[in-house]
Design goal:
The protein has about 70 residues and is of the alpha+beta class. It has one helix and three strands; from the N terminus they run βββα. It has a three-stranded antiparallel sheet, with helices on one face. The radius of gyration is 15 Å and the shape is flat.
Length: about 70
């Protein structure tokens, strides 16, 4: 078993879930459904394309200046 990261965001009436370590993406109407779908997509992906080595993930945030155009 390995742990992976799930990044979620809301897009209209769905939640989108992404796994940055592998690049898989899925969605669901509820957060847990999006995560469950992402887990399944990631498992299927890794069956076809197994990871060669374990990678440590570093997650951070950064700031960007945004100006509103009128």
């Amino acid at each position: 078993m390995r742990n992976f990261t799930a990044i979620l965001y809301n897009e209209e009436d769905m939640y989108v879930a992404e796994c940055p370590e592998v690049g898989t993406v899925s969605q669901g109407k509820a957060i847990q459904k999006a995560i469950d779908n992402l887990r399944e997509a990631t498992e299927l992906y890794l069956e076809e394309f197994p990871l060669k080595e374990e990678r440590k993930t570093l997650m951070t945030t950064f700031e960007v200046g945004v100006s509103a155009k009128t």
